[in-house]
Design a protein that fits this description.
Elements (H helix, E strand, L loop, with lengths): L6 E4 L18 H9 L29 E2 L5 H4 L6 E3 L2 E3 L9 H4 L4 E3 L6 E2 L2 H10 L8 E6 L2 E7 L4 H12 L5 E2 L7 E10 L2 E11 L6 E3 L1 E4 L8 H16 L4 E2 L5 H21 L10 E2 L1 H8 L3 H10 L3 E4 L2 E5 L2 H13 L23
Parallel strand pairs: 1-15, 3-5, 12-14
Antiparallel strand pairs: 1-17, 2-9, 3-4, 5-6, 7-8, 8-10, 10-11, 11-13, 16-17
Helix pairs in contact: 1-9, 7-9, 7-10
The site of zinc ion has 7 residues, from loops.
Protein name: histone acetyltransferase
Family: Belongs to the MYST (SAS/MOZ) family.
GO molecular function: histone H4K16 acetyltransferase activity; zinc ion binding
Length: about 375
């Protein structure tokens, strides 16, 4: 293994004779890997019902639009809508969403793809479209490359849009509580542009202030756009924002099954990209880097970096050092996958300055 030119040494490492510890990384990697290996990342449960909470109800932690919900009523889990029409797509909802009852009994509801207001018939929607001034989401367009744009909007300033977005998202996300209070959140809406306007593809929300370093609260690619690489683009964008903030971040837990798969694959690809590009420094036989350096370059939180390396079974302990060994198969399959990932976020096109919400008092 030591002869493998694709191996990298995790540095700094000391062998204390019993269990090697990574001094400057804080704690021993041996023990952290042990415990991380057991971490159960539960299914990503984005939103839960918009039913107004009565005072005697137990109000869960205010994660704004989406929090885990412990005391589900069976009713909140039953899919209540047959069909929605959004732009050129007719989509079958997957889960319950608290749209008004008089709407949910209809065969189809018609949603304006630009402002996300809903109407009970196509005729009503057509009337709305004549008046609707929007051809894109509200807020600021902070990124545009090719046909892909991102709009940033404030859940307080664009409350109605944010609430309608949460209602729409809830149709495809299970296990989360959806609140009317969107104030503590920013929303990043990804669109694809054509002659008719900027069409919503997906979004993620983000707490203005997160005490737990979450850089995504809820994330969704709308079904017509799934399995086309857009989910990864959303994730990549969320980490790009964290890089601009000079922070590491992680998505709010629990993740949905689909969300967890996307994140795992994003982490794997991003970390492998760095490891494969790594060159040994002068006078060194093998490239060296610390886990912290991976975190700094990617803005991926340390736990997620370690769990990714562990899941990939790349870490070996050899002569008192932790060594990452990349075999040819892994490198080849990574290259093939990356060739398919043609659309990437390009930080040159991001026009954005992070705000320090903590200093602003009330958002
Ligand atoms: Zn509209």
């Amino acid at each position: 293994m030591s002869e493998d030119s694709n191996s990298a040494i995790l540095d700094p490492i000391e062998d204390d004779g019993r269990r090697a510890s990574i001094g400057s990384l804080g704690g021993s990697i041996g023990s952290s890997i042990g415990s991380l290996g057991e971490i159960e990342i539960a299914p990503l449960t984005p939103l839960t019902p918009l039913t107004p909470l009565t005072p005697q109800q137990n109000v869960p932690r205010q994660t704004g639009s989406l929090a885990t919900h412990s005391d589900d009523h069976a009713i909140t889990r039953i899919k209540n809508m047959k069909m929605i029409e959004l732009g050129k797509y007719r989509i079958k909802p997957w889960y319950f969403s608290p749209y008004p009852q008089e709407i949910t009994s209809l065969d189809c509801i018609y949603i304006c793809e630009f402002c996300l207001k809903y109407r009970k018939s196509r005729k009503c929607l057509e009337r709305h479209l004549h008046k609707c001034p929007f051809k894109h989401p509200p807020g600021n367009e902070i990124y545009r490359k090719g046909s892909v744009s991102f709009f940033e909007l404030d859940g307080r300033k664009n409350k109605l849009y944010a609430q309608n977005l949460c209602l729409l998202a809830k149709l495809f996300l299970d296990h989360k509580t959806l609140y009317y209070d969107t104030d503590p959140f920013l929303f990043y809406v990804m669109t694809e542009c054509d002659m008719r306007g900027y069409h919503i593809v997906g979004y993620f929300s983000k707490e203005k202030e997160s005490s737990e370093d979450y850089n995504v609260a809820c994330i969704l690619t709308l079904p017509p756009y799934q399995r086309k690489g857009y989910g990864k683009l959303l994730i990549e964008f969320s980490y790009e924002l964290s890089k601009f903030e000079g922070k590491t971040g992680s998505p709010e837990k629990p993740l949905s099954d689909l969300g967890l798969l996307s994140y795992r694959s994003y982490w794997k690809q991003t970390i492998l990209e760095i490891l494969i590009a790594l060159k040994p420094q002068e006078g060194q036989e093998k490239p060296q880097l610390t886990i912290n350096e991976i975190c700094e370059q990617t803005s991926i939180k340390k736990e997620d970096v370690i769990s990714t390396l562990t899941n990939l079974e790349l870490i070996n302990y050899y002569r008192g050092q932790y060594i990452l060994t990349l075999n040819k198969e892994l490198v080849d399959s990574h290259r093939k996958i990356m060739e398919k990932r043609k659309v990437r976020i390009d930080s040159k096109y991001l026009h954005w300055t992070p705000k320090d919400w903590a200093k602003r008092g009330k958002w």
